[in-house]
Amino acid sequence: MKRTIAFKTLGCRLNQYETEALASQFSHNQYEIVDFDAPADVYIVNSCTVTNQSDQKTRTVVNHAGRKNHQSMVVVMGCMSPEQLKHFTESKTVTYVIDNEKKSAVFQLVDAHFKGELVDTSLLPESRFDYELTDPLFHTRSFIKIQDGCDNFCSYCIIPMVRGKAISRPLEDILDNIKKAVENGYKEIVITGVNISRYYFNGLHFEDLVEKILELPEDFRLRISSMEPDELNDKFIALLNHPKLCPHLHMCLQSGSDRILLKMNRTYSISSYLKLVDKIRSTNPLFNLTTDIMVGFPGETGNDFEETRFVAKAVGFSHVHTFKFSRRSETRADRMTEQVPEPIKNRRSEMIRQISNENKLEYYHKLIGHNQKILVEKINNNMASGYGELYVPVRFPVFEGITENMLVDVRLTGFQHSEEPFLIGKVI
């Protein structure tokens, strides 16, 4: 009889990739993947700890899983700190707790448990790259992990403590993974990690890795996941013209104030960021830029925030992931004075979201009349939906022969105003 397993992922794209790789491994070994709200033999929670709200969400999800069936196995893994994870270790509803370094061994743990073996989690192998290739259980695109950990130590961030020292994956492993993903039918490859622009392995930097990937003869398009704006040089900018590379970058800003960036221990200035934007847009005026912005960092004044608003408008980010500063123990920002009151954070968050929405509609309007190659993700009621090279959502009517996971040339004819706007097109 097949055992059932359910997954819940909180946090970043890297967490999502790792969950999907593990889910693929369980699926290959005769486990049935079910919805997290359904009854299951095993519940796996991949935790996030980037904010206090993330910690609370994880605790809520774990408690919810533990109440479903007291005979189910509940495994908590991921980025929550050892202090936070200790709470789950002492919980009667949680069976096992695993940190990031041993996350890739979850299948071995669960399989051994059901075979009646006594499992000592401290003896599980440590590997941050030992994940199977993902199956199309969740997406039509394949995420490829190239790097893990971070050495930047931004003053607000706990990730270096929970993800560990930066480490890069060997080039041949990455290229082999991509070849296999394309053989399995993937049309789009997304490279991901904690701080991917700092990739370095045996003399190869990030731009060298991207060049090697683009040189592969296989037929696919390459998308780059969230990244930092430092370490991006002219060689990388030149690669943005390559036909395989999608003209979209999610390039973290965090603040438009140099004073706040310095307090955050960010390694770039607003001037250098804007020069980089100009270089990127010189390759393609419609190049899509999205970003992260944090509001309410300790000491952020009204003037600092106005500088952030100015940069957000000037760059024209089509989407801004806005989040409020959250105090994390063991970080320097937690010990800083001039903590910003919560109501001010809330107002500033809303103002940035408003700019983001205005930018999005303005950008979508510019795209009308242009062509995009859409990767079809879903077809419902003779309407296909997916994303083009610019990473904008598009819907268009379909006819016989168009299927999911197909690349289709579409002319953009308009856009739909809604809570989540999208572009409308027609097949060329």
Please characterize this protein's 3D structure.
With 428 residues, this protein is of the alpha/beta class. It folds into four domains: 3-123, Response regulator (Rossmann fold), CATH 3.40.50; 140-246, Transcription Regulator spoIIAA (2-Layer Sandwich), CATH 3.30.750; 249-254 and 287-366, Transcription Regulator spoIIAA; 371-427, OB fold (Dihydrolipoamide Acetyltransferase, E2P), CATH 2.40.50. The protein has twelve helices and 20 strands. The chain has helices spanning 13-28, 52-68, 82-89, 106-114, 159-163, 171-183, 206-214, 234-239, 258-264, 270-283, 302-315, 342-367; strands at 3-9, 31-34, 42-47, 73-78, 96-99, 141-145, 147-148, 167-168, 188-192, 200-201, 204-205, 221-224, 248-250, 288-295, 319-324, 371-380, 383-387, 393-397, 407-416, 422-427. A five-stranded parallel β-sheet has the order 2-1-3-4-5, with helices on both faces. Helix 1 links the parallel strand 1 (3-9) and strand 2. The radius of gyration is 22 Å and the shape is globular.
